Automatic annotation (TrEMBL):
It is found in: Cytoplasm, Cytosol. One of its GO terms (cellular component) is cytosol. PROSITE patterns: CARD. GO terms for biological process: inflammatory response; innate immune response; regulation of apoptotic process. The keyword Cytoplasm applies. InterPro entries: CARD, CARD8/ASC/NALP1_CARD, DEATH-like_dom_sf, NLRP_Inflammasome. Residues 11-95 form the CARD domain. The keyword Transferase does not apply. It holds the Pfam family CARD. It comes from Oreochromis aureus (Israeli tilapia). Keywords: Cytoplasm, Immunity, Inflammatory response, Innate immunity. This is CARD domain-containing protein.
């Protein structure tokens, strides 16, 4: 899968599949760990997101903050998703 996740050919994968990612990403803890490690989120954001009760709420919080910041953040998030939710990413890539 060598296809780039973002523009110029349209919407970034992370934006295009926002609703499905919010619904279907379940194992968010390692994703948050890697986002923090890659400096996409800081300790305060990490703690705030971890405190939310559902994975859907955690994903919504990611979308309302860090994933709005830049294409680079979305690219990092995409790579982390590919590593942690490979089958979900592959399923969504077919749509």
């Amino acid at each position: 899968m060598s296809k780039k996740p973002g523009p110029p050919n349209g919407k970034h994968f992370v934006d295009k599949h926002k609703v499905q990612l919010i619904k279907r990403v379940s194992n968010i803890a390692p994703i948050l760990d890697e986002l923090q490690d890659n400096e996409v989120i800081n300790q305060e954001q990490y703690d705030k997101i971890r405190a939310l009760s559902t994975s859907q709420d955690r994903m919504r919080e990611l979308y309302s903050g860090p994933l709005k910041a830049s294409s680079a953040c979305k690219d990092i998030f995409y790579r982390i998703l590919l590593a942690n939710e490979k089958f979900l990413v592959e399923d969504l890539s077919k749509k």
